[in-house]
Design goal:
By secondary structure, this protein is of the alpha/beta class. The protein is built from eight helices and seven strands. The chain has a four-stranded parallel β-sheet. It has a three-stranded parallel β-sheet with strand order 2-1-3, sandwiched between helices. The longest helix has 18 residues.
Amino acid sequence: MAGTAGVTPPAGPLGILMLDTRFPRIVGDIGNAASFGFPVIYRTMRGIGPDDAVAAQPDRRRVLAALKANAEALAADGAVGLSTSCGFLALYQDELAAVSPVPVATSALLLIGQMTERKVGVVTASAKNLTAAHFLAVGAPADTPVVGMPENGSFAGTFLKNGPTLDRHAVEREVLAAGRALVAAHPEVDTVVLECTNLPPYKRALEKELGRPVHDVLDLLAGFHAGLSARR
């Protein structure tokens, strides 16, 4: 049906390829539909969990097979574009885009290539596992400054170890500490990107703490979905 003259009709739902997790998904997390100002639909990649994604050398064939199969299913369910619930899946941006029936934006790391006039630093779920290959896969500089969340902290206990509970205040403290460490080690950084899709709930607090703009996967997907609407 044609839209009102001069008005671009909205795109259909965005599909989110979800890791197989049990941790809480609060508002702001990509796994909570209330985080979005447009419709989303989800599909869990059974058997593909945090350990499969947040890895320096993942089983690429296995993960890509799961991404492909579930991308096809989401497209069949009406998704007009796809993203993923883990920023580390940036590694598969080109491979997934090549086999997906609909456009793909895997990770907030894609934002870095759009910020050519900025000095971007990244707060990530795991600094030791976020490699140059992840950045190069999305057209970002391989030497982008990175600080990770603490390996044995509250964040890791929930999101990397797939724990059933979340201490929001403890995670926020860890996010702020990671941000401070990033700009202390790299004072040239004037913009921060949150790799992890579980970190957007703490974006505003981090911006206030650092006095710098912070961008996350929700920002990426707002623009991505708007672009899909504009194509219609």
